[in-house]
Amino acid sequence: DRTSDAIAYAIDQGADIINASWIAACGPDKPQVPMLLRCTADAVNEKLQRMTMIFDVLETMGLNRILFVAGGPNVNVDLDRGDVQALPGELARDYIITVSSVDISDNLAPTASFGPGTFDIAAPSYDVRTLNALGRTTDAMGNVLTPGLSYQTLADGTIDLLRSSGISFAIPQVAGAAALMISLCPALRGDPVLIKSRILAS
Predict the structure, then answer these.
(1) Statement: the pTM of the whole predicted model exceeds 0.90
(2) DSSP the chain
């Protein structure tokens, strides 16, 4: 599929880091599972088996020499409970670093999934000020932008900066930190386990 093709392309091009700001999350129809993540037990198992198979194949191409930065869904749910499967972040691969979300005060973001057994680290991704694409009327979570609250405008009325939240703000910060480490110490290239351990120890 497109995802595996994109990862294969990154491997072929000699990428050191993959910023995987996408999540396939699914959980059985239970009260503790957020409605938007509910699916059948068969669907949960199918997603896990399919993602495992894809990563097994990609590892033969060299994926395990790349730091793969992933995250969890933008829903306040404990992934350690096992009710929701969030892939690829929950795959047991030592070259994957799984990121959660915190706010400006370093507290768990209201939009963050969590679980110390699932996540390795967290980065800011709540109420972030970011540039806005021209004409955009919703934020990354699909919320309608409110004048004076969600965004700032230029003199001509163009939306300039907006406030938004989501794991896709956190994952690139960790990927960027890893890139800076490699730029300062090229010997780290091709050793994602060491890069991950140094990030987590910092």
Answers:
(1) no
(2) -HHHHHHHHHHHTT-SEEE----EEEB-S-TTS-GGGB--HHHHHHHHHHHHHHHHHHHHTTGGGSEEEEE--SS--BGGGSSSEEETTTS--TTEEEEEEE-TTSSBPTT--B-TTT-SEEEE-SSEEEE--TT--B-TTSPBP-BTTTEEE-TTS-EEEEEE--HHHHHHHHHHHHHHHHHH-GGGTT-HHHHHHHHHH-
